[in-house]
Amino acid sequence: MIPPRLAPVVFGLILSSLMSLLVSGVSTYRALGMVDGFFGIWMGNWSFSLAVAFPIVLIVVPFARRVVARFTA
C-alpha cells in the first residue's frame, strides 16, 4: 500500500497519465488518421507526453487548488 503522504504524487501520476493518454491519442489520430502501426505511434507519443505532463501537473495542481479555494470560499 502507498503511504497517504504520497497521495498528491499518485493523484498527479494518475491524472497526467489519463489526460496525456487521451490527448496524445486524439492528436495522433488527427495528424495521421488510422494508419498501420497507429497504436505503436500513439504509445510513443504518449510516453513523451507523459514525461512532460507529469512534472507539470505536480507543479500546477497546488496552484489550481488555491484558485478553486478562492472561487469557492
Question: Your description of this structure?
Answer:
This protein is mostly helical. The protein has one domain. The protein is 84% helix and 0% strand. α1 packs across α2. It is elongated, with a radius of gyration of 16 Å. It starts with 6 loop residues before the first helix and ends with a helix. The mean pLDDT is 95.
Instruction: Report how far the terminal alpha carbons are from each other.
Output: 34 Å
Task: Give the strand content.
Answer: under 5%
SSE class: mainly alpha
Shape: elongated
Please, what is the average pLDDT? 95
Radius of gyration, taken over Cα atoms and rounded to an integer in Å: 16 Å
Uncertain residue ranges: none
Helix content: over 70%
Question: What is the number of domains?
Answer: 1
How many helices? The count is 2
Sketch the topology as an H/E string, one letter per element: HH
Number of strands: 0
What is the makeup of the main sheet? none
Report a brief summary of the structure.
The protein is mostly helical and 73 residues long. It is built from 2 helices and no strands.
Topology:
Blueprint: H1 7-32, H2 38-72
Helix pairs in contact: 1-2
Key descriptive features of the protein:
2 helices; single chain; elongated; 73 residues
